[in-house]
Amino acid sequence: MKSLSEIRQQYIKQLSEQYSLQEIDIIFYALAENYLHINKSILKLSLNELKDENDLKYILFLNALFQLKEGIPYQYVLGSTIFFGCEILVNKNVLIPRPETEELVEWILKDINNKNQKLQIIDLCSGSGCISIALAKNLPKSQIDGIDVSEKALELSQKNSVLNKVSVNYIQTNLLDSEKINTNKKYDIIVSNPPYIKKSEKRDMDERVYKFEPNEALFVTDENPLIFYKEIIKFSMMNLNEKGKIYIEINQNLSEETQELFLKYFTFVELKKDLSGNYRMIKAEAAIK
Ligand SMILES: C[S@@+](CC[C@H](N)C(=O)[O-])C[C@H]1O[C@@H](n2cnc3c(N)ncnc32)[C@H](O)[C@@H]1O
What band does 2 get if pLDDT is binned at 50, 70 and 90? Predict the structure, then answer.
């Protein structure tokens, strides 16, 4: 019979080569909260008292430890993560939602005074559905579409919308063929977190990201790194309302080029930093005719 404190020590011992102590604690408490259905703050206070009476949960912890040692991100091990207060199921077919993307959602919501108006919104490259679902939760009257090229990602985003009790219309389509996308709508908001990492930037990345997360969600070619933004602009020219706005997540190393690209087509283009101080988002409005 192990105490939770002993299991935590085992995690620290086994994972300290791969993770800092702070990271191990984030992972350990996320797993413990999920397996034991006890709030993190209570867990932290009662580590020594909590015992796994019949070691059933211990098997779960051991199984997770085995996967973590392989380098599998803990969100995949758990099968879910929290994004903007919504539980989002994740698996190897979707990118793990990032805190920077929560900031993009926050920016959109801050700009909307009346959350009960009926807006038409589309999330291009919707992945797990995190952006579209967080928006749907907070804008209950709006109609939200999501598109992605990956059938498996769409399957999961559909499940996520059911889990979060919202309705999002997910469509499988290729954004790089944007002229053929016909939703027969004019959108008030177009939001996107497309693939934007140059292949050559792989060498600076944490190996766990490109080894386990879907590469088609991450990378673009070095020759045409803004390819998705060019298509987003093309799509917007046809499908954005006159007073509509675009919100996009961007590559911090390409912020100037991305801003310049949008300035060719829009009157107002705002570049915004994320909480880590990196230029991470752009808002564009008033298309130049
Ligand atoms: C960076 S991920 C973003 C996922 C999600 N929106 C998020 O913020 O976590 C990019 C997404 O673009 C999708 N994607 C890649 N190429 C695409 C294409 N040609 N057309 C549409 N979606 C594409 C991937 O399947 C992936 O889900």
Answer: confident
